[in-house]
Amino acid sequence: MTKKYSLSRGERLKSVVKTQKLFLKGKSFKIFPFHVYYRLSNNTEILKNQFVISVGKHFFKHAVDRNRMKRLVREAYRKNKQLVYLLSEEKNIFFNVGFVYKSSSKLDYVEIEKLVIQALNMLKEKMLEL
How far is CA 26 from CA 38, 51, 62, in A? Predict the structure, then answer.
């Protein structure tokens, strides 16, 4: 199977109900400056892998800065999502994941990509435990 680096609209978590379930009932772990929330399911509750990114106004007052951080995280996720997608297809486990950026420091892309890879590897470990 060839690697698919695209990020379709369906891979973004837009449903208010699913997002609330993710943040209220989901599990989480921390990789500074991220709080990563996730929900795993091998039944019909979650039908496809989706993600959401949040950067708070408390940390970045200007929308330009918040949007830049979201764009960098989105790009890092898009390039490295294969780390968990292959296992997800193999074990038939689907997930919703939320990245919440909780720092006022502006990281560059290389640092963010390392952190996203680390978070995806942690998510992969959680999937193996299920």
Answer: 5, 13, 29
